[in-house]
UniProtKB/TrEMBL annotation:
CDD domains the UniProt entry points to: HP_PGM_like
Gene3D superfamilies: Phosphoglycerate mutase-like
Family matches, as InterPro entries: His_Pase_superF_clade-1, His_PPase_superfam
Protein name: Histidine phosphatase superfamily (Branch 1)
Domain of life: Bacteria
Taxonomic classification: Bacteria, Pseudomonadati, Pseudomonadota, Alphaproteobacteria, Rhodobacterales
Pfam families (alphabetical): His_Phos_1
Length: 181
């Protein structure tokens, strides 16, 4: 019986605290931060090169389907964005493209610093500065877990959207939505 309970809790733990807060996503003025869709593994392989997707951890078929479903769900709810910014990593760029929410702009400050944590503070400040300069735009930023955690304190799952608002020079989390792969 204990084994069954442990198995149950371990299976629901990843969903713990991820409310489907579409109201926060739909609010005018929300800044949406999204972790790229499902790309199995952690980090990037040795020999990673930014300009060569074959050297990176990429979306699999399930991740590509997840990205399309997220875009469909956002469009279906009438969520529009003024700008889609993405990390230059192939898994983030492909996610942003598959969302089909508008033109995608690569922003190097959204690149993962998983392999070099010393970049965390500088990149986080740069992203916050870019957001502040574009506060009158509805933004969707597609990035990585480490970046989103640095900006919000939230540890997002693959494909999860964290809705935020600009408050006193920082991002305040207002809700989260996860469309499972």
């Amino acid at each position: 019986m204990l084994r069954i309970l442990v198995t149950f809790f371990l299976s629901v733990l990843p969903f713990w605290g991820v409310a489907q807060d579409w109201n926060a996503i739909e609010q005018p003025g929300s800044i949406l931060l999204m972790r790229h869709a499902l790309a199995p593994g952690t980090g990037d392989p040795s020999g990673f090169r930014l300009e060569d997707c074959t050297t990176q951890r990429n979306l699999d078929a399930q991740g590509r389907a997840q990205a399309r479903r997220i875009g469909e769900a956002l469009r279906g709810r009438g969520v529009e964005v003024d700008a889609v910014w993405t990390s230059q990593w192939c898994r983030s760029r492909e996610t942003a493209d598959l969302l089909d929410l508008g033109p995608v702009r690569e922003v190097s400050a959204l690149n993962s610093f998983f392999g070099n944590r010393s970049k965390r503070d500088a990149q986080t400040r740069e992203v916050l500065n870019l957001i502040e300069q574009n506060r009158d735009h509805r933004l969707l930023l597609v990035s990585h877990q480490v970046n989103i955690t640095a900006l919000t304190g939230v540890f997002p799952r693959s494909g999860e959207i964290v809705a935020t608002r600009w408050r006193d020079g920082a991002l305040a989390v207002t809700g989260r939505v996860l469309i499972d792969p």
